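User: Structure tokens for this complex, please. No commentary.
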Amino acid sequence: MSMIATLTDATVKRRGKTILGPINFELAPAGITIVLGPNGAGKTTLLKVLHGVERLSSGRIQWSVPDAEARQSQAYVFQSPIMLRRTVGQNLAYPLKLVKAPKADIARRVAAWADKTGLADAIDRPATRLSGGEKQKLALGRALIRKPAVLFLDEPCANLDGRSTREIEALLAKAHADGTRIIMTTHDLGQARRLAQDVIFLLKGQYHDHGQAAAFFSKPRTAEAKSFLQGDIVE
Amino acid sequence: MNEIWAGLQAAFWLVARLDPDLVEITLRSLQVSVTALIIASAIALPFGTWLAIRRFRYRRATIAVLNALMGLPPVVVGLIVYLLLSRSGPFGVMGLLFTPTAMIMAQVIIITPLIASITHQAMRELWAEYHDLLISLNTSNRQRIGTLIFDGRRALLTAALAGFGRAIGEVGAIMIVGGNIDHATRVLTTAIALETGKGDFALALGLGFVLIALAMIVNFAIHVLSRTEREGRW
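Assistant:
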């Protein structure tokens, strides 16, 4: 299922201060979108309002399918992975149990995803005792196990070593190949270049640039985006 | 000092001989307190968890009232339940006064706020940890409460044990609504109060030691069965 999101004057305010917006754009139905920008640009807030875990102060986000259906077919991976106080296998099974999937189906998919995430040997271990990289892979597996139409990731590789980053990128590439729409924030320009098909550049909560990755990286349209890509401090 | 020693001896012989009266009132104590604990837990665990996850207008006031109810005087609870169940009361027709059922009712009223309050404290922390994940998974309130209760079950065990401790050691309310009737509503605490009144301190102390041992055994058994404090467990 492909879904298009249209943002119309989407604005988020906290204690009277505008954190994001007003933003107007249409999110393409497929591909990997990387949201770039310096700290405090509103990247995480954009992801959260798109997913519906944070409310807009004004404006609207319209998905091409009913809201309830859109939420059910989305998944979110947080920067600091949230582990249920359960085993690795139980963490993987959790989203399937929520939708009352058949037991045999749950067992089969949990085993498959434990294998894909490289956690088959740790399936009975408490999830909270995994390393940072393992936790993030588990969080990604748990997000993908219901085969979401849209996957949001908030800096999934922050603080991870090269090997874990590579494994997570491989999982993302596979998920994308299987038809999952990916929208991800990152600080890592190298990762953005490796994964992005299109890029959204945010600055001070404002939508600054949006375009095909190749064009954005070779010929950024704004001076701020150019400075950001050159590694300058952009405020 | 002599009375404590005599109490220990009395307790030993009561247990060693499996004194029929002791067995009867011990079993009744357990029956009343465990039943009250099950009913109170069925109410308090979901309610305390619900209170941790829901935001509503009078939430703070509700929490304040709940915390205040933890200190509910058992004698007052006993008096109110007595008035409700007495012949002239609204539920007098049910004939429950001076029965174990009345004692269970009083204990449920006493321990429910205690269990709910401890549950709320424990679940508030767990909810802060799980909040974003459970919201993003689009869970219903029922699923959230179920998840928190399941994952926080060891913290909730502490809440339940606190409730059991209060129930098994309670005397004021059950004396009023149970009447301490021999072979009908006499439990360990009311028997201790009776023997103390009669001046039989050795027997009263003996029953007291049995009561303490019973509370410790139940606590220990639940900890062993629930495998708390084990490596790799939460």
